[in-house]
């Protein structure tokens, strides 16, 4: 179990609370490439650079959990070359950043079904997760072969196998990362107003932020802006503020 995040320590005076868990739907790589007359794969290559920048920024800001939507259960519909390229990038990322994860005490985790992944990718994620599991800093959760519906179905299957009462708590314990708190903020880049099967169960009371910028153009300034906006919102969770 990772340490329970101590939110109060992370309050920035006059700015309010840093969200504990941020999810990002990193969208717009293809459009970025098209605008420069490049193949879509170049957009993903450039998107990886943004992901590295944002992981560093999130770690420096004291965010506890960052879930990055890397590849959905529906993204298998894309051309085989594009899929293979993205899987290759994931492998390069995990291998190439290990020293960075160690230096910054960053823990890597996976959300999604490992069964559907190419075996060497599943192994790579398993090994890096194992190597970094005791790091107390930012947890980066890679949503890869991830679909919110698929996660719920796998959780329900697990629950039925176990027997026992079907409650929200019991189902929650069967999700991919049951100890991770629900996301406070989900950001989507590239201007699309949809959830695309991301963290369906976990986002019941999540705040949303849509950015028009394409993911390869995103910077830590954009992350700070999204968080600043989040800090100005009133969350009520169905209740009424006194
Ligand atoms: C997001 O960028 C990355 C993945 C979904 C893997 P896209 O590839 O979806 O980019 P657009 O939406 O075509 O611009
Ligand atoms: C969502 O983006 C998935 C990821 C960012 C990995 P998509 O580009 O696949 O979503 P749609 O198809 O526009 O809804
Ligand atoms: Mg897209």
State the helix count. Answer: 8
Distance between the termini: 34 Å
Categorize the overall geometry: globular
| CATH homologous superfamily descriptor | Decaprenyl diphosphate synthase-like
Mean pLDDT score, rounded?
Answer: 94
- Sequence of strands across the biggest β-sheet: 3-4-2-1-5-6
The helix/strand order is: EHHEHHEHEHHEEH
Helix/strand class: alpha/beta
- Looking at the structure, the CATH topology is Undecaprenyl pyrophosphate synthetase
How big is the Rg?
18 Å
Ligand list: 3-methylbut-3-enyl trihydrogen diphosphate, magnesium ion
Please tell me the CATH architecture by its name: 3-Layer(aba) Sandwich
Q: Segments where pLDDT lies below 50 for 5+ residues?
A: 1-14
CATH class value: Alpha Beta
Percent of sequence in beta strands = 5-15%
Number of E-state strands: 6
Helix content: 40-55%
The number of distinct structural domains comes to 1
The largest sheet is: 6 strands, parallel
